[in-house]
């Protein structure tokens, strides 16, 4: 069967490597090109054979029906425009075109389970951030049914593995700094993902605010978010909104037991559980949401969106 050529910009990075590996095993896609910056000329071993990274400037953009950009923030938007001008559809994994980031142009936000129909017909999709994916998938069933207390501040406490920070060398991410350690960062509601999450939440519930605190885990991949939500009224069956909203969704696992990172690593899933909070004055729920930051939080969700944009089965080539 004819395979559809797709290209990856920034294929030498964490997200780009993951994407390239998914494409190499995809039944309907073939890797047209894979680009790098400092690592240009180096090879990446993939199932079915190695690929050599070319410089991004040399990417034959017009040879691809769809281009993924896994370039860093700031560098990506220009390449999205170039790929688009060359006639390709684009999935941008960076923040550049996401809601809440001051992008000049509004393109569909690719939180697939929320915006599937817009993604299907889009020429360009802004793939969500990893923390926003874990938090928004958890909150969507409450937001859509207006179940969160008016004027409430929802607290999102998330812990991420270090691949979330990308491959760039940083002293605070050296093995000796991270291992056997655990710390908060971006505290005081100062992390850049807050704007993205807030913009998405406010499209559904204008008077709900967020307090977001990220933490760094001494592991490679995975995000666990613990989200505390004041409700308008107690829920008789706390898990019902999630079971109903996500019935039939191939990549959302609504579960009774608390999710753990080892259950989601290397899989394109969000695993969600809920608990009623006892001994507090207002009706309150805690939601626990686990994803792999490089898969459902980046490359997997990007491929899920690309499948839809190319008219393919959404689940093709994705690890469940
Ligand atoms: N890591 C994650 O969990 C997630 C990442 N993302 C987003 O995906 C994108 C890629 O992230 P990630 O893979 O972690 O990042 P990495 O730092 O691991 O990779 C960045 C890629 O871009 C290339 N690159 C770096 N600087 C430039 C530049 N100035 N011009 C052109 N190319 C450049 C790098 O090439 P080389 O190494 O050869 O220099 C590499 O291929 C980012 O926008 C990130 O925000 C989104 C969700 C989650
Ligand atoms: C652990 C770590 O440092 N994580 C990154 C976020 C992950 C990421 O890549 O951000 P995007 O999803 O917006 O691209 C951070 O806190 O900046």
Automatic annotation (TrEMBL):
Enzyme class: oxidoreductase
Reactions that this protein is recorded to catalyse: N-acetyl-L-glutamate 5-semialdehyde + phosphate + NADP(+) = N-acetyl-L-glutamyl 5-phosphate + NADPH + H(+)
Subcellular location(s) per record: Cytoplasm
Keyword terms, alphabetized: Amino-acid biosynthesis, Arginine biosynthesis, Cytoplasm, NADP, Oxidoreductase
Keyword match NADP: yes
UniProt-listed Enzyme Commission number(s): 1.2.1.38
GO molecular function terms attached to this record: N-acetyl-gamma-glutamyl-phosphate reductase activity; NAD binding; NADP+ binding
Gene3D superfamilies (alphabetical): Dihydrodipicolinate Reductase, domain 2, NAD(P)-binding Rossmann-like Domain
CDD domains: AGPR_1_C, AGPR_1_N
Start and end residues of each Semialdehyde dehydrogenase NAD-binding domain: 5-122
GO biological process: L-arginine biosynthetic process
InterPro entries in the record: AGPR (IPR050085), AGPR_AS (IPR023013), AGPR_dimerisation_dom (IPR058924), AGPR_type-1 (IPR000706), NAD(P)-bd_dom_sf (IPR036291), Semialdehyde_DH_NAD-bd (IPR000534)
SMART domains: Semialdhyde_dh
Superkingdom to which the source organism belongs: Bacteria
Active site positions: 130
Gene Ontology cellular-component annotations: cytoplasm
Pfam families to which the protein is assigned, alphabetical: Semialdhyde_dh, Semialdhyde_dhC_1
Pathway(s) this gene product operates in, as recorded in its UniProt entry: Amino-acid biosynthesis; L-arginine biosynthesis; N(2)-acetyl-L-ornithine from L-glutamate: step 3/4
Free-text function comment from the UniProt entry: Catalyzes the NADPH-dependent reduction of N-acetyl-5-glutamyl phosphate to yield N-acetyl-L-glutamate 5-semialdehyde.
Family: Belongs to the NAGSA dehydrogenase family. Type 1 subfamily.
Protein known as: N-acetyl-gamma-glutamyl-phosphate reductase
Taxonomic placement: Bacteria, Pseudomonadati, Gemmatimonadota, Gemmatimonadia, Gemmatimonadales
Name of the gene encoding the protein in the UniProt record: argC
């Amino acid at each position: 069967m004819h395979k559809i050529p797709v290209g990856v910009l920034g294929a030498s990075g964490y997200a780009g490597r993951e994407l390239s590996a998914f494409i190499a095993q995809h039944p309907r896609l073939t890797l047209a090109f894979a680009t790098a910056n400092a690592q240009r000329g180096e090879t990446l071993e993939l199932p079915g054979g190695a690929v050599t990274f070319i410089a991004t400037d040399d990417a034959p953009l017009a040879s691809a029906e769809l281009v993924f950009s896994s370039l860093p923030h700031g560098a990506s938007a220009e390449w999205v425009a170039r790929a688009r001008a060359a006639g390709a559809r684009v999935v941008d994994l960076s923040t550049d075109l996401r809601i809440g980031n001051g992008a000049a142009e509004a393109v569909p936000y690719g939180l697939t389970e929320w915006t599937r129909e817009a993604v299907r017909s889009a020429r360009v999709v802004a793939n969500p951030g990893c923390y926003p994916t874990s938090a928004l998938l958890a909150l969507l069933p409450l937001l859509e049914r207006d179940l969160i207390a008016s004027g409430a501040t929802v607290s999102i406490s998330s812990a991420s593995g270090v691949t979330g920070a990308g491959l760039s060398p940083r002293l605070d991410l050296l093995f000796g700094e991270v291992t056997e350690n655990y710390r908060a960062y971006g505290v005081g509601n100062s992390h850049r993902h807050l704007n993205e999450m807030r913009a998405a939440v406010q499209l559904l519930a204008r008077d709900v605010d967020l307090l977001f605190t990220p933490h760094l885990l001494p592991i490679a991949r995975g995000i666990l978010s613990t989200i505390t939500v004041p409700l308008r009224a107690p829920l008789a069956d706390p898990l019902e909104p999630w079971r109903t909203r996500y019935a039939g969704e191939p990549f959302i696992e609504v579960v009774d037991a608390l999710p753990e990172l080892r259950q989601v690593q290397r899989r394109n899933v969000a695993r969600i559980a809920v608990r009623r909070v006892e001994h507090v004055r207002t009706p309150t729920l805690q939601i626990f949401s686990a994803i792999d930051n490089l898969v459902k939080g980046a490359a997997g969700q990007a491929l899920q969106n690309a499948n839809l944009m190319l008219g393919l089965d959404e689940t093709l080539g994705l690890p469940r």
